[in-house]
Structure of Histidine triad (HIT) family protein:
Amino acid sequence: MSSSGAEPSIFSRIVAREIPATIVAETDRIIAFNDIHPQAPVHVVITTKTQQYRNVVELAAAEPALLAELVDVARQVADERTGGEFRLVFNTGPSAGQTVFHVHAHIMGGQLKEGSLG
Ligand code: 5GP
């Protein structure tokens, strides 16, 4: 359950192992797993284990060190999978393509599928 008292997001349910995912990295506060609908040869979702922040703007304002940790874990994931050249995409708001309102980034490596960034 989140600290906000909201319904658990789909990502919180992955953190709790209530639904399966291929987890590729995990720290005390961050988790990364393969996207269920990959839009690139490497497509990993990276998120905070708690869901109190809806998007990157809220996270950056409240806990910049946690955002920095997320970016550092993303770099490690990308180093292992892409050789260090990658996209790190934070969709922010519905019209920007955000569908899960639990802060997360997409780590994408290789050629994107056509239309995948809108
Ligand atoms: P958004 O659209 O919010 O930026 O990104 C949400 C991402 O989460 C999408 O790329 C979507 O494919 C992914 N996703 C949604 N549900 C699941 C799930 O149950 N498992 C996994 N691994 N990824 C999911």
In short: The domain at 10-109 is CATH 3.30.428.10 (HIT family, subunit A). Strands lie at 23-26, 30-34, 42-48, 87-89, 104-109.
